[in-house]
Specification:
It is built from 5 helices and 8 strands. The protein is α/β, with parallel strands linked by helices. The chain has an 8-stranded mixed sheet. Helix 1 packs across helix 2. 36% of the residues are buried.
Length: 158
């Protein structure tokens, strides 16, 4: 269910179940085009990877969607384009990303889903879309904020 806010390009989505959160990811993915960067924010276990799974499958990926907690990034070649799914939870210093050679992922014409973007403060550019996933008594609420025309377009059709 979509509840638009007034005064800025933002939306709030209620997701009572994990399936609803995956469906939201798929809905947003249905209009996704590279280049695109989406920040996925929220507490541990709130559903960031669940959203990412729905998004990646919504872009046509048929296989397993793994959490990149230990690998830092998982690539997916989809009909929407290349998707890089990042999990920066284990990053303690943004310079680690440079040392790991991750700059090339951000120079490409791809879609980037980034969990824990605050761990790379100062290293990442402003995203097209920021999703703040919050646990609520009724499931999850996703506050979405666009910072580009591409992000605003995704929210307009979701």
């Amino acid at each position: 269910m979509r509840k638009p806010r007034t005064g800025n390009p933002a939306s709030c989505f209620c997701c009572p179940t994990a399936e609803d959160l995956e469906a939201l990811g798929a809905r947003i993915a249905s209009r996704a085009q590279p280049p695109l960067t989406i920040f996925l924010c929220g507490e541990l276990g709130v559903g960031k990877t669940t959203f990412a799974r729905g998004f990646i499958r919504g872009c046509g990926h048929q296989g397993q969607v793994k959490s990149p907690t230990f690998t830092l990034v998982e690539p997916y070649d989809t009909p929407c384009g290349i998707i890089y799914h990042f999990d920066l939870f284990r990053v303690s210093d943004p310079d680690e990303l440079e040392l790991a050679g991750l700059r090339e992922y951000f120079a490409s014409d791809s879609i980037r889903l980034i969990e824990w973007p605050e761990r790379a403060a100062g290293w990442l550019r402003i995203p097209d879309l920021t999703l703040e996933i919050l646990a609520t008594p009724g499931g999850r609420t996703v506050d979405a904020h666009a910072a580009s025309d591409n992000g605003t377009r995704l929210l307009a059709y979701s």
